[in-house]
Amino acid sequence: MRAMSTTSNPVLSDNFWSNIPGYETMSYEGTMQKIGVLFGITILSALVTVSVGSSGNLGLMGIMTLTGAL
Q1: Which residues of 19-32 are buried (b: 16+ CB within 10 A; e: fewer)?
Q2: How many C-beta atoms lie closer than 10 Å to residue 48's C-beta?
Q3: Residue 2, Cβ neighbours under 10 Å: how many?
Q4: 3, 45, 51, 70: which could form a disulfide with 64 (CB 3.0–4.6 Å)?
């Protein structure tokens, strides 16, 4: 542990992290809102995937797969 305390890496020092604006803890409500938004995006993308997959549109599935949208 001695080597960790004598590092010259500025990211590992306390001064680096204390000067970042907006460095606060999240509230419970904010955390739940972010979880809800991310869950909604996940469900929406899953529904699009199932819809395109069940329609049998191989051309669209190929394009979406190549572009990373599926």
Answers
A1: eeeeeeeeeeeeee
A2: 13
A3: 5
A4: 70
Assess contact for 48 and 40: CB atoms under 8 A: no
DSSP state of 25: P
Phi, psi of 22, deg, nearest 5: 80, 20
Rg (CA), the chain: 22
Q: What is the mean pLDDT of residues 42-65?
A: 84
**pLDDT over threshold 70, residue 69:** no
Q: Which residues are CB-contacts of 26 (< 8 A; sequence separation ≥ 6)?
A: 34
- Flag whether the pTM goes above 0.85: no
**Could you tell me if 58 and 64 are in contact, meaning their C-beta atoms sit under 8 angstroms apart?**
no
